[in-house]
Design goal:
heterodimer; A: 111 residues; mainly beta; 7-stranded mixed beta sheet; 4-stranded antiparallel beta sheet; B: 109 residues
């Protein structure tokens, strides 16, 4: 049974560029949440997708957007990258209101 | 006041010791609580959910104190492999998890 998968594992981008990160949820899960984890901090909630719609959003600017596909996989898009966007981006999947399981993350470096 | 607060540590303990971490939360309406373990440069892994009556899983015991708004994690008979950062998380809304900054545990021989 495959767990949560994310791609790519690492990414280096330049300030001002755009990036797309991908997530496939654990088999049977229908809800995907995205988190940003900066060094030395806990993960911070970006948003959550359920039934292909953004259901809940954290305190992140509109530069952060996402999408969920009919097969429950999801993308996180970040536009106009800033140096401060450098972080580990984590995807978590779950069934509604159940425990969340995290993927290995994508480490984004913005130079 | 932060929504979820943890002592960052590090907690340095010898193998075999018992160690406990606390985590305080500010939203008295919170209903669901979790402990995650995170190894260096890896993803958080769910250690256990925290139930109102408290729960135990092997050497690990989690407790919830609603009156004082904190959850705790007790690790008995510490192993070298327990060295990691322990994150507490509180669920708000549908599925938003609010995490503390984590408590670092170092178990030495």
């Amino acid at each position: 049974d495959a767990g949560v998968t994310q791609s790519p594992t690492h990414l280096i981008k330049t300030r001002g560029q755009q990036v797309t990160l991908r997530c496939s949820p654990k088999s049977g899960h229908d809800t995907v949440s995205w988190y940003q984890q900066a060094l030395g901090q806990g993960p911070h909630f970006i948003f959550q997708y359920y039934e292909e719609e953004e259901r809940q959003r954290g305190n992140f600017p509109d530069r952060f957007s996402g999408h969920q596909f009919p097969n429950y996989s999801s993308e996180l898009n970040v536009n106009a990258l800033l140096l401060g966007d450098s972080a580990l981006y984590l995807c978590a999947s779950s069934l509604e209101k159940s425990e969340q399981y995290f993927g290995p993350g994508t480490r984004l470096t913005v130079t | 006041r932060k929504e979820v607060e943890q002592d960052p540590g590090p907690f340095n303990v010898p193998e075999g010791a018992t160690v406990a971490f606390n985590c305080t939360y500010s939203n008295s309406a919170s209903q669901s609580f979790f402990w995650y373990r995170q190894d260096c440069r890896k993803e958080p892994k769910l250690l256990m959910s925290v139930y109102s009556s408290g729960n135990e899983d092997g050497r690990f015991t989690a407790q919830l104190n609603r009156a004082s708004q904190y959850i705790s994690l007790l690790i008995r008979d510490s192993k070298l492999s327990d060295s990691a950062t322990y994150l507490c998380a509180v669920r708000e809304g549908f599925q938003k998890l609010v995490f503390g900054t984590g408590t670092r545990l170092l178990v030495s021989p």
